[in-house]
Amino acid sequence: MSAHDIRSATRPDPDQPLVDIANYVADYKIDSQEAYDTARYMLLDSLACSALAMKFPDCVKHLGPVVPGAVLSGGVRVPFTSHELDPVQAAFAIGTQIRYLDFNDTWLAAEWGHPSDNLGAILSVADYLSRKAAKEGGAPLTVRDVLGYAIKAHEIQGCYALKNSFNRVGQDHVILVRLASTAVTTAMLGGGKDQITTAVSHSWIDNGALRTYRHAPNTGPRKSWAAGDACRRAVTHAINAVYRDVVGYPSALSAKTWGYYDVAFKGNAFEFERPFGSYVMENVLFKISFPAEFHAQTAVECAMQLHAQVGSRIDQIDKVVIETQEAGVRIIDKTGPLANYADRDHCIQYMVAVPLIFGRLTADDYNDSVAADPRIDALREKMTVVENKQFTKDYFDPEKRYIGNSVQVFFKDGTSTEKVSIDFPIGHRKRRAEGIPVLLKKFEAALRAEMPADHVEKVLAITASPEKLDAMPVHEFMTLFTA
After folding, report:
1. Bigger pLDDT: 71 or 348?
2. Tens of pLDDT along 422-440?
3. Using 50, 70 and 90 to split pLDDT, how confident is the model at 1?
4. Nearest to 202 by CA among 249, 137, 167
5. Which candidate, 293, 22, 263, places its Cα nearest to that of 173?
């Protein structure tokens, strides 16, 4: 084979991954009732996360226009606020709300991520288009349309994550939020396959954000708005492709020297385990009980079970042994001072210490006021985190997708608790029957904390009926949640 001529200006055919995404978004018909049902719960859960985030000023300060006073009358509504924004900035705001507390859904494989992050872009564009249609006498998008686009965004992000580890090259998983949101919002705006391909090529040319803000010693709150930032960029690419007819870059991935593979992925092409369908939405993991980084969810459940035996004996503890998956060791095993909320909710020792001591783990438990309790850091210093290779094996098994952890407490008098092990958390597909009622309670409680009781009852009545909810125009749905 002759060497590639980097001087040649001959325009190549689009890279196959770009084409595959365009074909899937434009042509694939979703016929999985389970996927639609799960997507409906995902939507409610994401709005619950948005409501819960409103208690935190550091989130709220991000939710308005880029500059004060830049109001767009009749613009996209941001849940639980009075803001009316253009769809680009609204995508950032809604994406930030959903992601802020690390309490929305999760996908774990070679890459990690939170597919409902894409709702920032999807809801923003859907609301924009629906308000525009209603004003012009057209047909608005419905909630059912939103669910369909969400299933496809979940699928794109999740299928890329199965075999391709962006964290191994130092890039943050929000690169896949930008990818998936770019693809589906381009279609939502009326773009065809060529325009989807163009928009997606721009997404790859953006390269990726570094994971610096997720890891010691730099962990910080950017991780809470990084997905919103990806949504914002995605909607920009979609608008450029559809409304401005920008030029695409067909070998954005494979171009020698200058393409994404050579620049950012060590020269490797992407690998795929399965074709796009509805697998990811059907198997997505919900964070229902605890706002905790997902690799620690079962560790928190273990600690909650041990609280009754341990809570009154904290000063008698000699050591605590936590067994987790390889990914858990690599991401959230953290020692030393924890500087802020974002540091704490990505530290498995902190997330185990709080329930052992208090018998709870809430978003407020990451605040400085709780972290100041000297018992937490003292207990962290007595913890050992080790990889359990079976947990790692089950984590990668496509038939399991477990996220196992175990916790055992040893006392100074030589006694110990039993080793409590949990393979998969309440948000796992295998625990749907147990988890969905808890998810709905999370949704209701979050609404009651932000909205008048009579309005909450109205919202609950609508969302309790799948048929009524699916048929609702998106702009009317969004108005239900605005101040």
Report:
1. 348
2. 999 999 999 999 999 999 9
3. very low
4. 249
5. 293
Segment 397-413 mean pLDDT? 94
Task: Say what the pLDDT of residue 277 is.
Answer: 98
Is it the case that residue 483 has pLDDT exceeding 80? no
Angle at 198 between CA 188 and CA 189, to 5 degrees: 15
pLDDT beyond 90 at 8: no
Cα 361 to Cα 299: distance, rounded to the nearest angstrom? 12
- The whole-angstrom separation of Cα 369 and Cα 438 is 28
**Position 5 confidence tier, pLDDT thresholds 50, 70, 90:** low
Residue among 41, 14, 222 nearest 119 (CA): 41
Q: How many CB atoms lie within 10 A of CB 84?
A: 17
Q: How far apart are CA 339 and CA 193, in angstroms?
A: 46
Spatial neighbors of 407 by CB under 8 A, at least 6 apart, are 299, 302, 303, 306, 320, 321, 322, 323, 352, 419, 420
Q: Is the peptide bond before 374 cis (omega within 30 degrees of 0)?
A: no
Backbone angles phi, psi at 253, to 5 degrees: -85, -50
The mean pLDDT value for 393-422 works out to 95
Strands 405-411 vs 420-422: parallel, antiparallel or unpaired? antiparallel
CA distances from 409 to 15, 91, 405 (A): 53, 44, 14
pLDDT of residue 401: 86
How far from the centroid of its chain's Cα atoms is residue 87's Cα?
Answer: 20
Please state the separation of Cα 405 from the chain's center in Å. Answer: 21
Rounded CA gap, 421 and 424, in Å?
9
- Alpha carbon distance 20, 191 (integer Å): 15
**Sequence-ordered list of residues with C-beta below 8 angstroms from that of 334, at least 6 positions apart, any chain:** 216, 343, 346, 347, 348, 349, 350
CA distance 449 to 51: 8
Is residue 234 predicted with pLDDT exceeding 60?
yes
Q: Mapping DSSP to helix (H, G, I), strand (E, B) and coil, where does residue 106 land?
A: strand
Q: Does residue 320 have a pLDDT over 80?
A: yes
Number of other CB atoms surrounding residue 148 within 10 Å:
22
Pairing type for strands 76-77 and 317-324 reads unpaired
Buried b (16+ CB within 10 A) or exposed e, 404-421: bbbbbbeeeeeebbeebb
Q: Which residue has the tokens 């309440």?
A: 426
CA–CA distances in Å: residue 470 to residues 98, 473, 476:
21, 8, 12
Non-local (6+) Cβ contacts of 240 within 8 A are 199, 202, 246
